[in-house]
Amino acid sequence: MYPGNLANGTSECKEKALYLCSMILTDTHTHLYSEQFKDDIDLVMQHAMEQNVKYMFLPAIDSSTHDAMLALQDRYTGNCYAMMGVHPCSVNENYKEELTIAKNWLDKRPFVAVGEIGIDLYWDTTYEKQQIEAFETQMEWALERHLPISIHTRNATALTIDIVRPFAEKGLKGVFHCFGGSVEEATAIVDMDFYLGIGGVVTYKKAALPEVLSRFSLNNIVLETDAPYLSPVPYRGKRNESAYISQVALKLAETFNITIAEVAETTTKNASVLFKTLLL
Where are the transmembrane segments (predicted)? Predict the structure, then answer.
């Protein structure tokens, strides 16, 4: 959100256009390898680049998606970065097999993070104990490999924070993906030196998230889409894309009363620190 109008034909317009084109946005959580993108992924990537989204981080789900995720990373080397882990919703009767597969991948090739991992008690609580075990196991892997983690938590934020805290005290870093919680929860996360992953929810009309975030620093935030899910306004109800992260950045620019370019610079620097990857 650069101040002033971009009126065509003026020197001010050209200066502002160059200013905006020079910024780099980073989507720290996007499932561009999913089936929803199989027919037009190159166009989706083009749209992202046109919106200055240069870097996209791909969280793993389970063994059913690993090949597609790694193929996308290899196809867009330097733009797409893969993680490895077992999603809590994929923790069921064969979770130990899934953990073994994920660990074998981590032993085989580099990844930027262990994720997405965590606790999800929204759909089903049958495997809560196994989810906790899988989560703790994968955090141990991250500590051993000096990797950050990308956390999925739903209907379990307080529990997840409690599980993470002893690992954070040992030096584990990471991000609470799709954060939408309270000031108290955000404070606990930031106090552990973890980031808040902010996506389309922040643009929703009735969302309390902008007020919560206004009490913190942009230095505590990274941007994400969780594409193809949780599209921001004005794309709500449609398939989400990494290109739409510009709408999240605009909302944060409004929340912190700064320019979108400043949001882009700070959040991309944060992503670079989080994933120990040189992005700027």
Answer: none
